[in-house]
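Bench log, entry 3. Co-assembly request; chain sequences pasted below exactly as received.
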Amino acid sequence: MEPWQLTAAAAAARLREGTLTAEALTRSCLARIAERDPVTKAWSYLDPMLAIRSAREVDKATVRGVLHGIPLGVKDMIDTADMPTTHNSPIYQGLQQGRDAACVGIARGEGAVILGKTDTVEFASGGRRALTRNPHDPARTPGGSSSGSAAAVADGMVPLAFGTQTGGSTIRPASFCGVYAMKPTHGVVNSEGAKRYSHTLDTIGWYGRAPADLRLVAEAFRLFDIETPDGKPRGKTVQQLRIGICHGPNWHLASEEAQNALLLAGKRLEAAGAIVEELSLPQPFEGITEAQRIVLLGEGRGAFLQEYLAAHGKLHADFRDRVENFANITGSQMAGAYNLAGDCRKLFDALFPRFDAILTPAAAGEAPLGRQDTGNPVFNSMWTLLHVPCIAIPCTKGPHGMPVGVQIVGPRFGDAALLDVAAVVAPVIDAE
Amino acid sequence: MEPWQLTAAAAAARLREGTLTAEALTRSCLARIAERDPVTKAWSYLDPMLAIRSAREVDKATVRGVLHGIPLGVKDMIDTADMPTTHNSPIYQGLQQGRDAACVGIARGEGAVILGKTDTVEFASGGRRALTRNPHDPARTPGGSSSGSAAAVADGMVPLAFGTQTGGSTIRPASFCGVYAMKPTHGVVNSEGAKRYSHTLDTIGWYGRAPADLRLVAEAFRLFDIETPDGKPRGKTVQQLRIGICHGPNWHLASEEAQNALLLAGKRLEAAGAIVEELSLPQPFEGITEAQRIVLLGEGRGAFLQEYLAAHGKLHADFRDRVENFANITGSQMAGAYNLAGDCRKLFDALFPRFDAILTPAAAGEAPLGRQDTGNPVFNSMWTLLHVPCIAIPCTKGPHGMPVGVQIVGPRFGDAALLDVAAVVAPVIDAE
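Structure output for the full assembly:
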């Protein structure tokens, strides 16, 4: 087994034992990238010598953080002090910030090796797509906007990567690429230094190849209640779990394979002894998808005004429309959308502790063909607006042999408990 | 009259007419700074030649923005691509970012001359204080955390300056220094590139010496409904206004001079023909001050984790305590505080259009003596959590001859209407 094949959690254990070095793991990832990236095109910036120097620095460190020696890919709209951050925009080619984004600085502080920058949809939003292809079929999208991060982890090029989610930009690509991902409770991970799109929605997320990988990153960010004094998960067994299956207000937009994946995940959990119940969301949730759209467009007005004034001609028409409020969003619509979101957050949190987690689609189906259509975020955007933690879990394959995942969702600030549930349900759901 | 004595709005008119150049105005401000800053110490970074070069660039511009030629001070925790941003932290001395903060980029895009960086409380939060002194009495604080910005505008050193408000960091210093200030609706001005403290609270604000100065900046940010096709305010006359006087849940913390200022402002408005009514906030507001404290401390955990890991010894104990959750804030307290804030936002917005604006204290009293105590933010923090627009208006003097202001407050997204009200009530309230 080559080091690049290790999950982050398995590699972390070897690095702790001293049977693997950060440099050896980094070199193995670089070799895998050299082999695979001409097709997958996950990376928008990669300086192998810089990565090896960073790994050697980590190998010299006397204090070992929770991410000690683990290579990490960073979505190219998150600032890095030692690499450019282009946002996949012609405006920012070659731009280099003076300091790391908060999430990058924290990962470095915990010993991660920042491997390189991964390609993204322009400003993690619209406009130009990433060049990245799905590792399972290069004719298909890996999803977006965290295209490169999801594909790089799925393709064995790096064990961990940062994405962001404003609509469905972290969880959906995980489903398309057959990997694990976490979008934590909004605001618990400082998103400073990731390009602003919508302050109410923008959330740093991360990819791994096992639930334990996701936990490592959650530990680095010191999420509420994440400390496990004995180092072991504190969760229930699968037989003690009560899972709510939630079709949500957009079930009619789920393809057959997405519907099947949800039913299959539920059946597998039931067969393993969990209590699985259908869950209907109360009436206000009928408006939640529209509320997310209003917040996204309304907050987008101010998010791209700087670029609109400084580099109008280089700014994609998608963003010019937002600044000019093409959608005619009013302040009163904004306040209404915020109010509805607040109401739904309270209603959703109140489902716990009746349930341990909610099981719901991670994407509308298999990854679409081509590069332009990065998939429908409709099965993610409501959870982003609700600010709740979400974990993507691979489940099955669709009619074209492409991965189809599901996600589990918890209440706000229930990130640690949701990781406990993921550790128990993932081997049951991800069973192919 | 020297150009530095002009309000931003008056200077903008002369710049438009061509009777004043950006360079002449900038040189006049620099001369005033040279005279006054050895005492006031408002500026943490100032390169006169850079400022003059920037002014000459503006004088060459063919397109004229709404801030054309107006010098602007920038709080030293807001990024500038051509000047360092220290956050008044020993960690970031000399740090220079690759791009402007969004608010700085937008101001530049609209023709402002970025004059220099103004001193701030460390990370706009706690720890080290600014060196700045109150222009009305150098033995007293100008308030914080936007210490240098408020003092610079009050002292005639610059017509406009950016601050930020997370508790009371924009409005309170305005009251202490006897100037105008605006804290807009949360989120309508992109705060990207200003150091994160609390994503729910952090708001870019600005200082000027007249209500029309505040409007200029609001126009640059294209706030909702700010466009006035004929260029004239669309507001009511003072006789058509209905103003709610609000003591708020912390009235017992207002000094005699703060209580007097509020009563005086109300009487002046009544004498001018406005309808002025006492307003009691509903019961949930009793918890709003505590909710703001929980949000501030809970979100502070993640805000300073990067610095905690990278430069533990250089990080003030205030911030280490936050990262270590010294206050023992729980996720469930956080969700409760968010829920209460959401409820109160709905209740507050529902007061409009019954009222045109709410009149309430801007600070607990006169500026305290010394540099350490920058004043109590308790008359600001609830409005910051409510996300509503606030405008500080000078009113009277306290027992030590120091300025004491009041503020008017509107509903979320009512920024433009609140500016209309300010234009009408300011000459009545600010009458000494």
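Chain B has two domains: 3-220, 238-286+336-424. The longest helix of chain B spans residues 22-40.
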